[in-house]
Every structure is written in structure tokens, then in C-alpha cells.
Amino acid sequence: MEIKLFTFTLVSLWTYGVLAYEYHCSKRSALLLLKRPAYEFSLRMLQKVSQETDSHFVYSPISTWLQLSALAEGADGRTFKEIWKVTKHHRNRCFKRQLGEILNKLSKDLKNECKRKSVIAMDKLMAVKKFYVRQIEKLYGIKALLLDFNEPEKSARKVNQVTKDGTDGLVDNIVYYDDFLSTVLLMSDANYFKKSIRDVLFVNKFRNEDVDDVDRGNVSTKIDIL
């Protein structure tokens, strides 16, 4: 019994040593642990979106992956397990800090090429802890808003204002009042590529057209279409 216990201890220590050696907490290790789950999630989401829209859609799945990972910070039990099945993100706190630094640097590097604002709006009746709000803003750069969903028009204005401020006025109307009906949580993400990078990626691929939004009462709006 003592020999078996000693052997088990040695194996456990050796395994821990190998894992610590291969995945010591660094930006390089954080990137390695980030790439695969983010890639697999993105692939599944893009396939689903492509099927639902007949491939007529431009979508950034990494933003959704980050938002779901941020939601997991405040989840537990069954809810956390369901989110983690989808994201497969690393749960070590040190790696989360490294990820936060990577995302902050990425945002700074891309500030001249694109504008992005990610928002998670939650009904304040859920009594979400302020610590959670601070954590997801610090780690993921996502703005968390505690709003009164019983006042949907006011809530929509606040989300739109935060988005407008975060994109220097480039995106100013991303949610509507009826998005806040019969729900307690809403995620939105606005990405705007400036003309310089749009020209590089999609030379002569855009055309500006009037599109009727059936869900909003056939309101006509101009959008760039690939």
C-alpha cells in the first residue's frame, strides 16, 4: 500500500512538473492555449452562420468567443459547464491576466485600422456583483452595463451611446428597444474597419445599397455589401 501510494505521488509530481514546464504562465503559453479553442469555436460558428444566411454575411466569431468567455467569469454550476463546452477557454487566473494583456496590446496596435466596442448589458434586477463587472472590463475589454430592462428605450439609448463613444461615432445604432423585451441579458459587438484596411482586403468588392429591414418595419438604410 505504501509503495503504491509512493508511486502515485511520484507520477503526480512528474505530471505536474511536465505541465508546469510546458505551460508556464507566459504570453507565449497563453497564446498557445488560446488558439485552438478560439479556432474551433470560430469554425463551428462560421459554418452555422454560413448555413443560416446562405453565405451572405460577414461575421467575427472571435468577438462572440470572448463575450462568452467573459460571461463564464460570473457563472457557476450547470451554466458554467454549458458555456465551457462551447468556449473551452483556459480557466487559470494567471493565463487570464496574460490574455488580458494580449488583448489590450492588440487593441492598441489596431486602433488606427479599426474601431471596436463590445458590450454586455444585464438587467440590474439580477444583482450582478460589481467585481464581475470590473473583471470582464479589465480582462476582456468588454463594457458591462447594469440596466433597467423594464425601461427598454432608455436601456437601448445607453448601449448605443457607449457603442457610439467607443467607435468615435462610426457606429451609433446597434440595438433597439425591443431587443430588451423578455430577456435579462444582451450582447452586442460593433466592428468598423477604416477605409485603408477595407481597400487592402476588399478592393472593388463593396457596393453601397439601400436595404429594407423587415424586422424593423421595412425601415430603409444604406449599408456596404460585398
Q: Any chance you could write out the topology, listing elements then pairs?
A:
Blueprint: H1 2-22, H2 27-53, H3 61-72, H4 77-87, H5 93-109, E1 114-123, H6 130-140, E2 143-147, H7 152-166, E3 185-193, H8 195-201, E4 207-213, E5 219-225
Parallel strand pairs: 1-2
Antiparallel strand pairs: 1-3, 4-5
Task: Please describe what this structure looks like.
There is one protein chain. The protein is of the alpha+beta class and 226 residues long. The chain has 2 domains: 27-52 and 59-193, Antithrombin, Chain I, domain 2 (2-Layer Sandwich), CATH 3.30.497.10; 194-226, no CATH class. The protein contains 8 helices and 5 strands; from the N terminus they run αααααβαβαβαββ. The strands form 2 sheets. Strands 2-1-3 form a 3-stranded mixed beta sheet, with helices on both faces. Strand 4 and strand 5 (219-225) form a beta hairpin. It is globular and about 50 Å long. InterPro entries: Serpin_dom, Serpin_fam, Serpin_sf, Serpin_sf_1. This is Serpin domain-containing protein. One of its GO terms (molecular function) is serine-type endopeptidase inhibitor activity.
Just give the CATH class of the largest domain: Alpha Beta
Fourth-tier CATH superfamily name of the largest domain: Antithrombin, subunit I, domain 2
Beta content: 15-25%
Shape: globular
Radius of gyration, Cα only, in angstroms? 21 Å
Tell me roughly what share of residues is in helical segments: 40-55%
Number of separate helices: 8
What class, by secondary structure content?
alpha+beta
**Order of strands, widest sheet:** 2-1-3
Give the N-to-C terminal Cα separation. 69 Å
Q: Do you know the CATH architecture of the largest domain?
A: 2-Layer Sandwich
Query: CATH topology of the largest domain, anyone?
Result: Antithrombin, Chain I, domain 2
Largest sheet: 3 strands, mixed
